[in-house]
């Protein structure tokens, strides 16, 4: 196969000279994948970060027909295969991945995956995948391109500019961060509750009925917020996010309507439902939908102007049922798309933060949905704002891997 070496070489040189991609991070990885896709003549490419200690991985960048995989976990069996000693580049048949992913890749014109392990200082931080369009084996030129792309990714990781996107960190740092976030986020609602309670206690006779009712309303609202925050902190501290699941087929439209009707009043007022009459059944735990929707709605509310409407939609494809929460808020930068689901991550950090929160809501959503063999993603919305999307397996499609809990 003819490979566009000239375009690839010039593109990599330009990548490092560009003021944006030259700083590394996801913009550089995205540009590199586009260059590789064009040079190889393949329909799509993806890059996954690996956490070798836990045998886990996640797709952090993807192009072309592989963009559906963004944010999806990588099967432990695939990670184990990548880490085996031997050649850095090898072929993986679609039968080695889960049924949902295999069917999705086949429907988009892929026949197998050419994987390249990226080694750096005795560890393997990532792997590169090219989605091959026919059954022909990779030729010498394609293997050379994968090696060049892998070396370039390794260079980006060695400079540690914005990479890795996911950082497991050590337990001590996690504990220290947990304590810091807990003390900071608990302080605000507790201070407000105490302030209004003290006002009622010390100035009851001076307050009219309207002022007393308003103080009681604020105390109740802040108490609810405090209860939700404590639940999040307890779930995150154990890293389990959710308890025992009871998966099965369920009507996601009915579950969403019920969950939306029970949102806090301030969220419900700005929510608009654009749901279809019916969809194929989803496969998962219906009981988790209210919490997931509340977290996504709260996130949309936090980053949107008060006059803007938040929209809830839903749909399906051949293998999944999905729902989306769409806002017209401040939006999300492409390089932050994958970070937002990490524990304690904040869009703005430090003492000057404009938006409160413990950085746990989206993390818990991700953990909850992944345990149901689904995935959640955020992306910029056309015209401004953010689209939060949750996908679950269809309940009317035969599955083999779902019962095992593996994605």
TrEMBL record:
Where in the cell? Answer: Cell membrane
Catalysis: reaction(s): ATP + protein L-histidine = ADP + protein N-phospho-L-histidine
EC number(s) from the headed UniProt entry: 2.7.13.3
Query: What InterPro entries does the record point to?
Result: HATPase_C_sf, HATPase_dom, His_kinase_dom, HisK_dim/P_dom, HisK_dim/P_sf, Sensor_HK_Regulatory, Sig_transdc_His_kin-like_C
Which Pfam families does the entry link to?
Answer: HATPase_c (PF02518), HisKA (PF00512)
The UniProt GO MF terms for this protein read:
phosphorelay sensor kinase activity
Q: Name one GO cellular component term.
A: plasma membrane
Kindly report, in one word, the top-level EC class recorded for this enzyme.
transferase
PROSITE patterns reported for this sequence = HIS_KIN (PS50109)
Q: Which UniProt keywords apply?
A: Kinase, Phosphoprotein, Transferase, Two-component regulatory system
Q: Where is the Histidine kinase domain?
A: 181-396
Q: Work out whether the entry's keyword set contains Phosphoprotein.
A: yes
Give the top-rank taxon of the lineage listed in the UniProt record for this protein: Bacteria
Coiled-coil intervals, chain numbering: none
Question: By what name is this protein known?
Answer: histidine kinase
